[in-house]
Design goal:
CATH class of the largest domain: Alpha Beta
Helix content: 25-40%
Structural class: alpha+beta
Strand content: 15-25%
CATH topology of the largest domain: Polyamine Oxidase, Chain A, domain 2
Largest sheet: 9 strands, mixed
Number of helices: 30
Distance between the termini: 44 Å
Number of strands: 25
Bound molecules: flavin-adenine dinucleotide
């Protein structure tokens, strides 16, 4: 790909008149102002970069939030763009009539290692399930508890008609083995499907598979056991053995909300979708184009494949596809018919005609059956389940005479038994999970569910008192993970377009489809993407991706105005003022990299010019503190530009800088305190772009003591030997040190500013 030349940089009114060292200062200051004032514009190749960041993350699901959190914690200037109006992606909770309704029944598995690293469990106020389940079989409910954690239920468990004594012994062994197997070994192990794994490898009987493992794991995988990797079974089984399952008291949405709360203020942009992604830029649905050193695409697989076509398609020619689930919520007056905080499983799968070796199982067959009764087409997986269920041999259980079509439920939970906060006082919240998304009306589904649960909990109560609150149909709840997943179970975090000769370095991916289809997989892939981004940023000087990623072309005569709070909107060419690029004739400006220019309209442009002029005056008097500029502009207190200035100024001068200001202040400091060469160097054509990108150039300038002017107040000249290190990361930290930023050695973060 041809390297594009750097276009002339546009300057705010007045700035282009400066030349020589003043001109350079002007450029540095303009750069600084850009970093302070947010959206501004640079034109390149028909793309108008409206603001720039070190990293843009696309998607505020758990994976994107973890990536952003990790990067922000390292002091990176990161922005997250999210198409929806809230964070969390698939992890959502709605409040309705005083109930907390998670969008689809989900559980919080406490042992997940990456989840543990990322979340503060205490703050989530986790409300626990009892370890085990209540299995509906043979017309009654039977407790199957984890004897290691609820030994008091051991006898009940042994007596339950859910498999033989031999089965129960084998499950105990399986549990011990699981905790002794390293996680890595699980994902490296020979792989088959879960049904074969349980029946053939582990030697479990059809009874325990059908009555316990099928509804339990089908509720997790949202797919028949025959379509799920045995590695996933071993992983999740181990997680259950190691820790509890629970729900945050405020609903599952507390998970992404906690992650989002760690991000710097202003770094989340909701309700704006990424339309196009390339090396160094992201084009958004509101018309803006963000420039970035690195871009993390943390959407679901389908969108990621649209945004990053070539590489993801080559990586996996066909997408994994998704699995759906349907969740019905009911309000029940008074207490629940079952008081224990337990998951209730439909162990009557035998009644549905399922058997090991088929893919039926309780809900799979039932779901399709509902649709079949209603004469409506279902999704492929459900239909397959129905076919097998219909042809299987009948069970000897008392329920066997019932037609499968009437029994869609996979599992039921009286959620307010687990977390009383999920229901208003005096009421019970019931969640009912149906695997898949049956193509039947809500009324048909509600009727089928109530009929089944009427048999379980009493027809009069269920049909007469249970009020349907909402039905959530989620066609894409999880990516499918059908064996063989092979060595690519965990996919790489970086998209190496450069390798393909297409210059795509700086593009990264995250999401549960690149790992296990769980919260843990999402967290882990977010962590890995962030790690890859950090390595990339350390190896590539700032500006490189943006400069190289946007192909050459003509400058668009467009400008921007403020107004929508997200960086403004386009003003048609005809209304645009004459291009500033044309009036920017200074030699020094043309030598600069593709920094965004200041918008020229309204108070913002005036303020920028005024701030700049004020800054210059202060600078000449050796008082180039930002505070000086702010105090000089007291009269314009109401103006957003002044308050923004003040905010950053205060952050920079306070002894302890809040996390939220760190990234922006760091970026600002990097630009402002870049060494200011004397006029001789400027005359040679000091090139900030080259200074940033070319280690030799940087070294040359730094080594040439004569090339420096005396540092101004509040800015220290770089003297430490580490400042000479050609690595951009080292240069950055030296620069920060020179500006009074103390680096916290243990965390690698800058933790403090001083003037
Ligand atoms: C019903 C249900 C039950 C589940 N149960 C469990 C469970 O019990 N345990 C468990 O561990 N996991 C469970 N999961 C899975 C878990 O929730 C997911 O694995 C995880 O949330 C995926 O996170 P993600 O960040 O990879 O993707 P997502 O959450 O899908 O996030 C992707 C984000 O990208 C955004 N986006 C998409 N396109 C664009 C664009 N062009 N521009 C900007 N933004 C865009 C989306 O709006 C979304 O916010 C369940 C999921 C569901 C739905």
């Amino acid at each position: 790909m041809p390297r594009t030349t750097t276009p002339p940089m546009t300057m705010p009114d007045g700035a282009s008149r400066f030349s020589g060292s003043t001109g350079l200062h002007a450029n540095l200051i303009t750069t600084f102002l850009d970093s302070l004032f947010g959206p501004s514009k640079s034109s390149k190749g028909g793309l108008n970069i409206t603001e720039t960041h070190e990293v843009v993350v696309i998607g505020a699901g758990v994976a994107g939030l973890v990536a952003a959190k990790t990067l922000a914690a390292e002091g990176k200037d990161v922005v997250v763009v999210e198409a929806a109006n809230q964070v969390g992606g698939r992890v959502q909770t709605d409040e309705y009539k005083g109930f907390l309704l998670d969008r689809g029944f989900q559980v919080f598995i406490e042992a997940y290692p990456a989840v543990k690293r990322q979340l503060d469990y205490q703050a989530l106020d986790l409300q626990s399930f009892w370890p085990g389940a209540l299995v509906r079989a043979d017309g009654g409910f039977h407790t199957v508890a984890d004897p290691f954690r609820r030994p008091q239920d051991l006898i009940k468990g042994l007596l339950a008609p859910v498999g033989s004594l031999g089965d129960k012994f084998k499950v105990g062994l399986l549990r011990v083995q699981a905790t002794l197997t390293p996680l890595r070994a699980i994902f490296d192990s020979a792989e088959t499907d879960t049904l074969t794994h349980l029946s053939k490898t582990k030697g479990l009987s059809p009874a325990i598979i059908e009555r316990f493992f099928t509804p339990f794991y089908q509720g997790i995988y949202l797919a028949p056991l025959a379509e799920q990797s045995s590695r996933m079974f071993d992983f999740v089984f181990r997680m259950f053995a190691e820790g509890g399952i629970s729900l945050p008291a405020r609903g599952i949405r507390a998970v992404p909300e906690q992650l989002a709360a760690t991000l710097p203020k202003g770094s989340l942009q909701l309700g704006v979708a990424a339309l196009r992604v390339g090396r160094g830029f992201v084009e958004l649905s509101d018309g803006r184009v963000l420039g970035a050193e690195a871009v993390v695409v943390a959407t679901e697989e389908e969108t990621a494949r649209k945004l990053l076509k070539k590489e993801l398609v080559r990586e996996r020619p066909k997408p994994l596809g998704g699995r759906g689930s349907t969740c019905l919520y009911y309000a029940v007056p008074g207490p629940a018919p079952i008081r224990e905080p337990l998951l209730v499983l439909n162990g009557e799968s035998a009644a549905l005609g399922g058997r090991p070796g088929t893919t039926s199982g309780g809900a799979g067959g039932g779901t399709a059956g509902v649709a079949k009764t209603a004469g409506i087409r279902t999704g492929r997986a459900s239909a397959r389940g129905a076919k097998k269920a219909d042809t299987a041999s009948p069970s000897p259980s008392p329920s066997s005479s019932r037609p499968a079509s009437r029994y869609p439920v996979n599992n039921v939970v009286f959620l307010s038994n687990i977390a009383p906060t999920y229901a208003p006082p005096g009421q019970t919240l019931v969640s009912v999970t149906v695997v898949g998304t049956p193509a039947v009306t809500d009324a048909v589904l509600d009727k089928a569910v109530k009929e089944q649960l009427g048999d379980w909990f009493g027809r009069e109560a269920v049909l007469g008192q249970w009020e349907l609150l909402r039905i959530y149909r989620i066609p894409y709840a999880q990516p499918r993970q059908v064996p063989p997943t092979g060595p690519s179970f965990v996919l790489p975090a970086a998209v190496d377009w450069a390798q393909a000769g297409e210059g795509g370095e700086g593009l990264f991916v995250a999401g549960d489809y690149r790992n296990t289809a769980t919260l843990n997989g999402a967290c882990e892939s977010g962590e890995r993407a962030a790690k890859a981004v950090l390595a990339h940023l350390a190896a590539h000087p700032p500006g490189e991706e943006r400069r190289q990623g946007i192909e050459g072309g003509t400058l668009r005569k467009e400008t921007w105005e403020e107004g929508d709070g997200r960086g403004g909107k386009r003003i048609p060419d005809a209304e645009a003022q004459p291009s500033l690029a044309a009036s920017s004739s200074s030699t020094s400006t043309s030598a600069l990299p593709s920094r965004p220019s200041m918008p020229r309209r309204s108070h913002r442009g005036q303020d920028a010019t005024e701030a700049f002029a004020r800054f210059r005056q202060e600078n000449e008097r050796g008082r180039s503190t930002i505070q000086g500029v702010v105090s000089g502009m007291e009269g314009r207190r109401g103006s957003p530009i002044v308050s923004r200035f003040r905010e950053v100024s205060e952050a920079r001068q306070s002894p302890v800088v809040a996390e939220k200001d760190m990234a922006r202040a760091r970026a600002a400091a990097l630009r402002v305190v870049a060494p200011q060469p004397a006029s001789s160097v400027v005359d040679e054509g000091f090139n900030l772009s080259r200074f940033r990108s070319d280690p030799d150039e940087r070294k040359r300038i730094i080594m040439d003591k004569a090339a420096f002017t005396a540092p101004k107040e509040g800015m220290r000249q770089m003297t430490s030997s580490s400042a000479l290190t050609p690595s951009p990361a080292a240069s950055t930290s030296a620069t920060l040190r020179s500006s009074g930023v103390r680096s916290d050695a243990s965390s690698g973060r800058e933790s403090r500013f001083r003037d």
